[in-house]
């Protein structure tokens, strides 16, 4: 598609790249940008040739937050009636293929929350994360209080959200927020994200979607229910062509040619 606030491309086979591109506002996530992001995510999610999606920003900013200038005049009634921020749930609630956040520069407020919503987070050492909403007289509104707390534990999340203090990409790695911390800049970061996305896109789409689904269930269910859920889906995958293809290829010492069915 052709977009105003984002760029889309397929830099590697099976990999859909979405670049937030509103440089004058450090990629502040205004409503029109989010509409485009959701459209691009759905397009890749529905495209059989795509196996993994990357969301990135620029060297300077992944995203400096929700758009403060758009939010400033809102009343309670307006926010409530239009269900402001509801479109932000599209990624977590609807997108089934894995989404990697590649974060360099600022990931503040809603930008941090968007990164936390992704399935895998990679960042540069010098990336700057934070939930500074408290400084604006408000609180995180796109899941930050829940996802950051699950990622770093209650005491640290409470400290971050109540002081509004930033944390670095290096700290994000140490605390388990980021799966990988890259030493260089945006280019080195994207290289690592491409590698992982290409690896994932090289597997059976059916198995990958199931793998994402079961890991996400761990965030919602008790351990016993989660293990049962996993077993149901594990059993179900014996009905996929790719389970036969994968296991037969192993036995025959061949490379599997996935049918994605
Ligand atoms: C709207 C923003 C913005 C934002 C930056 N800009 N962040 N506009 N919303 N979140 C705009 C600035 O107004 C400025 O526009 C331009 O981008 C460049 O920013 P500067 O401040 O001049 O850049 P710099 O001095 O380098 O400082 C970078 C910064 C600072 C430290 C990231 O911009 C900043 O503190 N931004 C706000 C961060 C924040 O509070 N985020 C949380 C938002 S609340 P002009 O026109 O002046 O050039 C939130 C709520 C989420 O996200 C809850 C629901 C999702």
From TrEMBL:
Q: Which GO terms describe its molecular function?
A: enoyl-CoA hydratase activity
EC numbers listed for it are 4.2.1.17
Q: Which domain of life is it from?
A: Eukaryota
Write down the Pfam families for this protein, in alphabetical order: ECH_1
| Swiss-Prot/TrEMBL GO biological process terms | fatty acid beta-oxidation
One GO cellular component, as annotated: mitochondrion
The first-level EC class reads lyase
Q: Which InterPro entries match?
A: ClpP/crotonase-like_dom_sf (IPR029045), Enoyl-CoA_hyd/isom_CS (IPR018376), Enoyl-CoA_hydra/iso (IPR001753), Enoyl-CoA_hydra_C (IPR014748)
UniProt keyword list: Fatty acid metabolism, Lipid metabolism, Lyase
UniProt cross-references to PROSITE patterns, sorted A to Z: ENOYL_COA_HYDRATASE (PS00166)
The reply on keyword Secreted is no
Q: Which family does it belong to?
A: Belongs to the enoyl-CoA hydratase/isomerase family.
Q: What is this protein called?
A: Probable enoyl-CoA hydratase, mitochondrial
Q: What species was this sequence derived from? A: Penicillium antarcticum
Organism lineage? Eukaryota, Fungi, Dikarya, Ascomycota, Pezizomycotina
